[in-house]
Amino acid sequence: MLAIMSATQATSPVRSASGAVFLPIQLESLRVDTVTDFELYVQPHAGDAPVLYRGNGLPFTDDVRGRLAENGIECLYILSAEEAAYLRYMESNLAAILTDDHIDKEAKSNILYGSAQNLVKEVMLDPRSGEAIQRSQELVENTVNYLFAEKDAFEHLLKVTSFDYYTYTHSVNVFVFSVSLAQRIGMNDVATLREFGDGTLLHDIGKSMLDPAIINCRGRLTEAQWALMKMHPVYGYEILKDNGKLTDRALDVVRHHHEKIRGGGYPDNLSGAGISSWTRICTICDIFDALTTQRSYKPAMNSFPALRLMKDEMAPDLDPDFFRIFVDMMGNPGGH
Questions:
Q1: Which whole number is the average pLDDT over 78-96?
Q2: Residue 312: how many CA atoms within 13 Å on its side-chain side?
Q3: What's the CA angle centered on 195, arms 193 and 200, to 5 degrees?
Q4: 3 and 38 both lie in a single domain
């Protein structure tokens, strides 16, 4: 469930007597001279159900913000049913939000993470939508800019990471881990990192072509199901290649993130130097997130045991230098 408030201003969702659920949002996250496609509610007193303050489709002006601030209101509410509309609004205003000094980093990270999840969810429902792919590239650009502008941005993003596995949360996690790891390694060309980010955010888009029963299977896949699962990098590559918006670097990551340094991966059984540095980064982050997120058929591993398992059982499959830097990054997310 959405939680946009900062740690110092955090409030919990509120349920009315009728059963409606209201989610807290930060006043500073609303942009002046924009139209909000969701209703805004205020809570008269602690413990009260929120009451309607402004309907949807109305401009949010400086006067409106000023009146709320004068009354000491830092937190508003939206109906949980309008969460997607709010996140779409956040996404469209993300550049301004991430550069606003009045919004603290934890709130920015929550907004960014929630917007990214909602966007990838939409992409998975309509993977051939050119408009959705364009939006994903804009989100990647804003995220890369944020990671460069705020030296501890990754540390704050790590705190809001979801460890419940869905394809869309996994995609966002791998994207954040991968771009941050590339930075740690010293890959600091912004344009190149944006290309890389495009590929990592959409690395599992091919899963949209699989039967949900395979994606959500609680036990071991049958041989036939596994054969289909192994096709998802090819499906993703073909979808995005046909779209024509992603570069060869991004497409390489999408197609080859399940290849192994010693060979035996899929879909092309690459090995060694045949696997690009960018794909090697994504592979490490993909495996780590898969191990540390909760599935229907297995509990999430804690970070240290997951890293230990990767070292003990998967070392020949992973780039040793990149993995060593990844271990350091996860142990010291605020360092450089």
A1: 95
A2: 6
A3: 85
A4: yes
